[in-house]
Amino acid sequence: MASEPQPASGARPLDGVRVLELGQLMAGPFAGTILGYFGAEVIKVEPPGTGDAVRRWRVIDDDGTSVWWRTLGRNKKCITVDLRQEQGRALVRRLAARCDVLIENFRPGTMERWGLGPEELQTANPELICARVSGYGQTGPYSSKPGYASVCEGVGGMRYVNGIPGERPMRPNLSLGDSLTGLHAAFGVVLAILERQRSGRGQIIDATITESVFNMMEAVVSEYDRCGVVREPSGSTITGIVPTNTYLCRDNKYVIIGGSGDSIYRRLMTTADRLDLAEDPRLATNDGRVKHQDEIDQALADWTATLTMAEVIEQLDEARVPAGPINSVVDIVNDPHFQARGMFEEVEVGGRPLKIPAISPKLSLTPGRTDWPGPDLGSHTQEILGDFLGLSADEIEQLQRDEVI
Question: Does residue 89 contact residue 116 with C-beta atoms inside 8 Å?
Fold first, then answer.
């Protein structure tokens, strides 16, 4: 079982904010994780018996629970409620009436069919902020479609520009769309809290995977609209900026070099013992370097092939040229910079320590922290329904017999 120590001392910016989290998997729950890390009291509602599907996804610990859950469920008070039953929905209405924020990531229309839509909940609690997370949004012709990150990353444009030209579009081995949407939803909640301080009103946040990905697409729309340019995949480079690429070293490790600034480029090529290219007037600015990208990349590849990755980075650090490794998680965990920056926290699960990632950004006066790892299913049902909502022990036992909780 996951241990739940007493919360550490120290104020956090969202202290006093109470969040009711509905839904499962990644995007909505990640928003709740961020808010809880920075002080919000997050009450997570899960279906009885099974809980959030993340509890059983990917790498499973000895106790049968995913180690991912211990990270994603941190700082949350977990209760079980069957939303398919009216008694369960009635409990959620009572909870929402006493919360500041509700996060849900069901398919649009589901909450309304359950009588839990924002219009009904805000009638009882006008200050309630409703963060609605979905694939395509609450409106529009795609709103009713199921929206998984794997699909929405393609619809939003990210997958198109990722990969090797002429080959199948690639994805990183991560659910980036979900994580980006969680960040957008959490940001929206904070904005809505600020607005509520002025107006006293709650509002609805419509956060979508497709649009969160689309927000990352830089100038692709403007480039197409004004110049008819369609940004294409470019492998390990980025279109229109040279040099910035990945190069193989003598020890079969890859190094990333970013030498696109004019003065940086000259220092880079001088370090690579290519004074001819460092001083070539054709290559003095980025426009010229873009035209001769293959020549520059080949020269750098020839140079890195003669050195180990560490030697390349050492020389480029001395020359003040941005360069670095492609780190695996093994490299990151052992990296002194990540350690010095406090990017790991340790919790106890099953009587053993478990390292989990800290959450950025760093706040100097009110930093976030992990108080406890993702708890076992239903760990806080008694506290929330009894102490918070005021249900008697007999009422809670009856709900358990009725399989509502």
Answer: yes
Domain containing 269 — which CATH number? 3.30.1540.10
Q: Is 178 one of the annotated active-site residues of the chain? A: yes
Final residue before a domain boundary, out of 325, 354, 383: 325
For the stretch 380-405, pLDDT in tens is: 999 999 999 999 999 999 999 999 99
* Residue 220: closest CA among 167, 169, 165, 156: 156
Tell me the pTM: 0.94
Buried b (16+ CB within 10 A) or exposed e, 49-60: eebbebbeeeee
List the catalytic residue out of 52, 82, 100, 178. 178
Residues 76 and 176 in one domain: yes
What is the DSSP secondary-structure string of 41-78? EEEEEE-TTT--GGGGSSSB-TTSSBHHHHHHTTTEEE
Can you spell out the DSSP letters for 233-291? --TTS-TT-SSEEEEE-TTS-EEEEE--SHHHHHHHHHHTT-HHHHS-GGGSSHHHHHH
Q: Which domain holds residue 35?
A: 18-216+339-401
Name residue, tokens 């920056």.
Answer: 341
Mean pLDDT over 331-347 rounds to: 98
- 7: DSSP letter: P
